[in-house]
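>> received
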Amino acid sequence: MKKAIAALLLTVSMLSAAGCGNKAKDNNTAENTAEAASKKEENSSGETENSGKIEVDKKLFDITVTIPANLAGDISDDEIAEVSEQDGVKSVTKNEDGSITYVMSKARHKQIMEEMKTNMDAALQDMVESGEYPSYSAISANDDFTEIKVTTNSDQLNLKESLSVITLYMYGGMFNAFNGTPVDNVHVEFINEKSGEVVGRFDSRNMAANNTAEQSEEADIKPLNLDDAVCNIINNTYSSSATYAVQISNPNPDHAILYPVIVVTIKDAENRILKNEEQTLNSIAAGDTIYYGNSIYMDNIADAASYEINVETNNYRKQDDSQYARTSDFVIENTNLIEGSYDNRITGEITNTGSVDTYMTAVSIIFKKNGKMIGGTTSYVDHVSPGTKKVFEISFTKSFDFDDYEVHAIQW
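>> returned
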């Protein structure tokens, strides 16, 4: 990300210079006056102090922009020299702390901002067309990139799509900081192209607040506990699959765990890997325990002899009951097992009694026999908003040999 932003700034400067040609030289009176004022101020200003953010100092004729080291570190000395030779750019200085200070005319700054907007619009379009995010069909932004809308064919965002907001935050923050109009929030919405419903909302100010908590309390974070995990091989008339179920607890009383990954590895008798499946969950609230189960379909199921189940994560945030739902927020009622000729169904009702507006909720059936988990299956319910009740129906093959079951729900 640092390299992308630094390169963007460098490219904007160079393209703006190339576009204006020698027009700045024609306006020699204003330009020379600006240059003289700039040099006088530069000689008296001393070293630039890096505050960790972009500083824009709008003088009478010139504008000084300081880019902190954490964004400017990838620009080479040769690239700096190339930019500093362009018309309208008075100087480009790499400071001892790694930050870079641009001094330029107001006219050049205006041109750079126009080019930056063009390049950022192109960068957003590239996110759609590059194939890196195949579900995205359009990305639009307002004039200052503080409101960004992503149109997607996804009903639920995967981990990569959720993390793409960081790039969008950077674009919005960089544009406004370089323009001298810093903002405290960039808002991103993901909208399903068919239904028109919002399937995800993100705000950069929440990330900033969470990062502060993350840095100050990192030493206190404890890893997740995999309290119970089981995987059963099913190879019969109805199914050729491995069904697994897990019980995971978050021992941290004040922090939610984000994006835990369940890793299921199926091996043959010689310990060779036949199948490796990863499932990323949304979050586990502070002090909460969740249950999840699903099936893995395999062509070579007959060779399966052993399994391993692990849970991995290194993401956490300060618990916020308006963002990270607890399992107790979801009330499951009126469940009913309906047996069919080939498939069985479990129906019921789910009510969201919490405050998190969950755009997708995973409902898991945990199958049991003799009081122990033997596997599970999961389906999903759209948009169970606070205070609402919805009906769910989960179908599964008759291959599950169970004598009891439980229904659990988690934020998705």
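>> The chain has three domains: 2-108, 131-216, 225-411.
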